[in-house]
UniProtKB/TrEMBL annotation:
Pfam families: DAO
Record-linked InterPro entries: FAD-dep_OxRdtase, FAD/NAD-bd_sf, MTOX
Oxidoreductase found in the keyword field: yes
Name of the encoding gene: solA
Entry's Gene Ontology molecular function annotations: N-methyl-L-amino-acid oxidase activity
Protein name: N-methyl-L-tryptophan oxidase
Amino acid sequence: MSATKRVAVVGVGTMGSQAAWRLAARGAEVVGYDRFAPGHDRSAAGGDTRIFRSAHFEDSRYVPLLKHADTLWEELQRETGRELRRLTGCLLMGPTEHQQMATVLESIAEHGLDHEVLDTEALAKRFPQFRIEDGDAAVLDRHAGFIRPELTVLSAARRAEELGARIHRYTPVREIVPVANGVEIRTDTGTEHFDTAVVTVGPWVNDLLPDLPWEVDIRRLINAWYVPTADDWSGQERPAFIRTAPTHCYGLPSPDGVSVKLGLSRALHRPAGDPNRLERTVEPGELDIFTELLSRYMPGLHPDPIRLSVYMEGYTESSRPLVGPLPGHGNVVLLAGFSGHGFKLSPAMGDIAADLALDGASPRPIDFISTLDRAEA
Ligand SMILES: Cc1cc2nc3c(=O)[nH]c(=O)nc-3n(C[C@H](O)[C@H](O)[C@H](O)COP(=O)(O)OP(=O)(O)OC[C@H]3O[C@@H](n4cnc5c(N)ncnc54)[C@H](O)[C@@H]3O)c2cc1C
């Protein structure tokens, strides 16, 4: 990089806080904007925990990106002195022949990941908190665990500020206007000029960029927290968990040891509607599926939730995020549509955003998530 580049980061949430950190670390002049303040829980981040996994069941092409993210998770923890992630393992359970089980085993074999395979008997003995079905197996991803989402966003944003970034809080960006020699960022208080803008507005992507040529479906996600009534949950091993089928769901024991959080898969999320008017009240009927899952697979959890929270996330048709320049506007770099699995990748995504904003290209293997030549509607 010759002259210092001025880069706007629009949306200082999960991806934007990491982008601001990586850009500031590389010497860019960074100005961030968020409609709220870093670390808030009114969007895709929140709810105390996110799963980190090394073995990706969606697509093994994520594994090199996860390895890069892993290095940066360590670096961010070192630089901030905060425990942002704890490796407690992640147990992927379900029918042996299920596609996601196969993809996990494929990515483990291809990349030599630290894991254990458990058959029905071993699973029942070692993890009595889960009721399992005949033919179920499990893969325990050992380099896995939980991330603290709010603390991570806040810490990455603060680290960016320590490195010189400026962050405008409670400052929604109204318009991004590509101009001949860069890009203008318009807010209610004025317009600023930048060389490049990184756009990471999560569930607001369609609002801010109404002409986006790809569909990002914004969904409303419920998390529910349940208290154990049985000793099964008091063991030493408290991994995050994912059940693949027949109903895909996931969960995490809460870091304070009091409860277990449960979440559902994409197909069970309702459309979010206007992200500025997210319906945060959970109707009793919406809990039926949670109750059913508890009685079938986790009977040691009391079926009355002690906490309910609602979030939003943008899904692409393929579930692969959109990462790269906007068509025809090389100096507007988009990161959107993380489809329910972006948090673990976020430091790597921030670094890739910095590559794209400062150098125009990234050395990371991102063809499969790139906006360039993206055919998907
Ligand atoms: C309930 C739930 C559970 C999940 N579980 C996991 C998991 O276990 N593991 C995992 O890896 N991933 C998980 N994910 C996915 C992950 O959390 C998301 O992929 C990730 O948080 C998306 O980050 P983002 O930066 O795109 O959006 P956000 O984090 O929402 O950030 C967008 C930011 O943009 C700001 N903004 C919006 N509009 C504007 C504007 N006009 N001007 C300025 N600022 C603006 C918002 O205030 C917000 O701060 C989960 C998601 C949800 C919702």
